[in-house]
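We treat protein structure as text, and this decision shapes the records that our systems exchange. The remainder of this section carries one protein's record, kept here as part of the documentation:
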Amino acid sequence: MEQSPPPEPRSKLVSKVPFFYGWVIVGAVGVGFIMSGPTQTFTFSVFVDPMLNELGWSKTLLSSLYTSASLLAGLTLIVTGRLLDKIGPRAMLTGIGVLLGFTCLWLSTIHSAAVMFVGFAVLRMLGQNSLTLIPTMLIGNWFVRFRGRAMALAALGMAGSLALFPIMSHLAISRMGWRDTWIVLGIVVWVVLVPVSSLLLRNSPEDVGLRPDGARAPRQEGGTPQPTTHHSQEVVWTVPEAIRTKAFWLVTLVSAFYTFVQTALSFHSVSIFISKGIPAGQAATLFSIMAPSFLIGTVIAGTMNDKLPNRYTMIVGQLLVTAAVAWTFVATELWHVLAYGLLLGMGGGFLSNVIAVIWSNYFGRQNLGSIRGFSTTFTVMAAALGPLPVGLLADITGAYTTPLVFLLVMPVVGATIALVTFPPKKAQHLEATGGLPA
């Protein structure tokens, strides 16, 4: 079993906050989600055509580099998860912010496939992977009863990222070129993410003498509060125990199906609509509609996840993604692009929320980093594979029709698997959740 980071004394900042400090964590996590924007495929998709035009590469080559680098980055997540359980999210996220800024500067120097591969690998390792895993682990640590709703509020950051970074990057590229735009993104990460992570984050409520959800500590005889211990009264799953359950692999599989399709679509969406005669500027607006629809989806999902079995949320999310893929076959006008963004955004909101909370709900908090790190290795590898077959088939056939048919099937299968993804059972019973549904 991994050793938790040593508790720290309650800081002046935590003591001065007049409400449960977990809600400050939610805000900081939201900022982390926003700053994941430069590492997300929905931002990189805006760079695809400008980079291809300058470098003279094919879609297949660029997709291959992105895929192979993402696969390599995915293998590091097991180590990332163990480090999270050892040194805590605060130190990890601060260090990642520093290194991520340098990675963006590196990407501005790309002149060969080798340089691109290194940049992609580090970008995916530090950014899209860790900046999703670490913030969701923080929410899982600080909340139990209100986990779904807290994640929905934090997802305001992801919605903001969807709305901000693709449009901002598109405008910056049109004015200063894609190389200088990477430099700007790196500076933004340094200025925003590093201070927030180092100053505001705390690893868990127990580390600063609090309890999840702001609950009061139970009283001993004489009215003295009982000492707060890490994850007391909670069912503890170790990594070996978790990976022997059917639930672990079913959740991993559903997540992998979603990340495969989502990354493939995010990587190629702008190019897909350009191929249908829609101008690049209009095609990029799909991300602006995805932002509010993502938010709507995650708010609805957050409420559902706190009241209903989590597998229901996974089913709804997969069906919304299915509808989005199906819509691409008829898209020829701007309003079609916006409808696509609406469906894909809502589906992403549902699935992002449930994937973020289901691991804590199913396997507890104590070894959450290691358990999620092990699972996320597979889902990141699935995400890494998404752009390549779509780009390859598009190059071979000269259109996106065939790969879109392939993508249409996957969320349907994912919804079917989600239907039988029941929570694992263990002899101990978690009373601290207050009967939190799974």
User: Anything to note?
Assistant: Residues 49 and 269 are 12 Å apart (CA to CA). The chain has a mean pLDDT of 80. The radius of gyration is 21 Å.
